[in-house]
Sequence to fold (555 residues):
Amino acid sequence: MVSFETKPYSKKLLHLISWGHWFTFFNIIAAIVLSSVYLINEASPETFTGYLYLGTTWLSHMAFLTFITFVLTVFPLTLLFPRTRFIRAFASITFTVVLLLLLLDAFVYNRLGYHINASSAGQIIQLISAEISEDRRTFWFITIILTLFILTFELVASNYAWKHLKQLQKTVFPKFVVFGFVTCFFASHLMHIWADANLEYDVLKQDTILPLSYPTTAKTLLTKYGLFNKTDYLERKTSPLSFNDPMPIYPTIGQCSAEQLSQKTYIVLTKAMLTDEQISQFQQRSSTSTILLSHHVDNAQPENAWFNLFYGLPTIYQSAIKENNASSVLFQALKNNELASSFTTIGNGSKNESIAWLTENFDKQQQVENISPLIFDRSLSKLPSGLHVFYFDSDTNYEVELFIDALLLSQKLKPQKDNIIITSVGNQNLNTRLAIKPTLLVWPHNKTKQIDKLTSHMDIVPTLLKEWLACDDVAHLSAGKSLLGLNEDRVIANTVDQGIVVFNKDKSVFIDQNGNFQSYSRQLAAPITVSSDFPLMIDGVHFIKQFSQNNQSVQ
Fold:
């Protein structure tokens, strides 16, 4: 090894910097090889331009990220503390960690569709935890082997570059390689500018592939995931979101083995949003166990909210299911178990024709002006076993309080308690669609007092199927989950004509087709503009598409 004890400081420093450049060059080659993992699950480009952009951006992007890592970590420390052994050890460990993070990021991208980021830390940790739980020994074995392999490569590259530095400095080919990287860097950026101007989708759809890169607009991402029509995208049109892939056949319910078929379930729905104070009063007046849903959401307009509630699916599936006249799995289960169903509207308004195709699934439909016929003459106790829905079509909740008081009072006199779900349905204006909707479950013999996980109307159907009717294998029947079985945080999403609404436990976001992100301020009770969060949007897209993917795999 060359000794620097008699050499001046500047010559020693230049020698170290020159070594660092060659060490970084070897790591650029390693990073390019390892980053090929990103391309495995990606659809191939359809045009020569797409292939050309993929090649140039892949080579230049990975070369740039590797070089900037050297500039931000190893290079400054070389200037401040030019000790040969320390710098070489530090650089080897640093690039070992960086390449391991690159492989981890590729794994996360291939599973979740986005790269490692702070906003989706919960989903990423859950993914890694699930892998460890599934096969702990294999996970740690692969991790240790990869770490040792990469560290060995770093030490060999470091030692080789140091011992053969003079020979390497005399070689010519690396200059052409570096020139090629620089050319690819400028070529890929110029191609992207051209693609933005001409909406060259085969280029723009590649924006999310490599780490630290995200799409220009939400519409590009929605088109890539098959939720926006590609022809409309290319023609710069705005159109409602819809599936480009074939819709799956709506499933049929399996075997249900409920033991207490005499138990009724009441769903009390209001047009006006309930308040936390009203829910608290209902909770105090209940004689049986209650469950408060503290993070319940419902973003849809009234006609779409009914579909979300009774089918447990995002709105994007509504038109296809309505066209096929497919009955909800909930009503299939009721019919198979010979349970009754009724839908009662309380109010003076005219019948809502937009949801008639949904309410026709009920055995009995009626409309009353007020609650008098319902709470007198023991009408509630005379209802047959089954599902009974009461909808208060009013802008005030005065009668709602009286009705629920009567319903809860009737439960005190019954030896077998019934299930009751109390919530609002639909949003009368856009300002409330991102707000939390106070919701209460009265569920006998349940020890849970509160569910602080994110919930939605799409969870009602799987809850009734699993917890009330004891149906088998309900996971693929809707997009929601049983409320009583929630044990982890998740993202919930739904579609609207203008874009997509995504919720997680901490925030609610609306993304329009032009890529504008809006959140809801509970303090201001109004929408506010926020920075783009594409990983959250991708989680939302996965939630929306899971029903289609699950049922295509079932078929």
Summary: The radius of gyration is 30 Å. Residues 1-6 have pLDDT under 50 and may be disordered. The first helix runs from residue 9 to 34.
